[in-house]
Amino acid sequence: MQLLGHNIGNNRRLFVIAGPCVLESERLALDVATALAAIAERLGILVIFKASFDKANRTSRASFRGPGLDAGLAILAKVRAETGLPVLTDVHEAWQVPPVAQMVDMLQTPAFLARQSDLIEAVGRSGRPVNIKKAQFMAPHDMAQVLDKAVRAAGAAGLDADRFLLCERGTSFGYNNLVNDMRGLAVMAATGAPIVFDATHSVQLPGGNGDRSGGDRRFVPLLSRAAVAAGVAGLFLETHPDPDRALSDGPNAWPLARLEPLLARLLALDHLVKQAHDGDPFFL
């Protein structure tokens, strides 16, 4: 699959989606993106900058949601212009898709909205690559139907249908807890789509702190290694210069200063796995 000028796939070199959960300010976005661009150049990998213009699924009505559509897209445009990184953001409603698709390089559908047919079909018709997140309440094999909605919408619009990625971000297990069944990566890979593993939301504890979500970032490297060893195409890692002061998802965000060493180790593992298994990293 061609993604932003790069060959990506479950048997290709790992790529990364990274950035703060939400657009807190233009300055923070540019600082993080500049650091990510330098990491991408040193490691020789595709890095896509991610941040949300609106977090519509917050635990509390008092939680920070972001700058909104117009201001958020302006910040993302500046990030792309000043750092050269491609940018990704998520869309929550079908009407947002056309204006957002005009301004960003890649779209994302939030996990909670994986079953929203109008939204999935809208991103299918957008012409942009899309990272489609598996809902926390869905089985991995259910994502085949979600992918089918996007592919059929693209086909009906006369567009390339080979531009959808499926993303694992954990499955609800009891109250305020997520677990990862690594078998699900192989199940979703059987659709033929490139698979992305969301390492930071996978350690989230949704609503676990009462009026906000908790998380345990200690397990980000462990789960990332497991997913890379399975053979995923890409990793999703929210990162922040000071996660404990982040306005969204701080407990599960990975510190920006510690990102490059983590990625270097994961790239070494990725190379080993994909070289050893001759183009079939999931080797079922």
From TrEMBL:
One of its GO terms (cellular component) is cytoplasm. GO terms for molecular function: 3-deoxy-8-phosphooctulonate synthase activity. Pathway: Bacterial outer membrane biogenesis; lipopolysaccharide biosynthesis; Carbohydrate biosynthesis; 3-deoxy-D-manno-octulosonate biosynthesis; 3-deoxy-D-manno-octulosonate from D-ribulose 5-phosphate: step 2/3. Keywords: Cytoplasm, Lipopolysaccharide biosynthesis, Transferase. Residues 7-262 form the DAHP synthetase I/KDSA domain. It comes from the Bacteria. It holds the Pfam family DAHP_synth_1. Its EC number is 2.5.1.55. InterPro entries: Aldolase_TIM, DAHP1/KDSA, KDO8P_synthase. It is found in: Cytoplasm. This is 2-dehydro-3-deoxyphosphooctonate aldolase. The gene is kdsA.
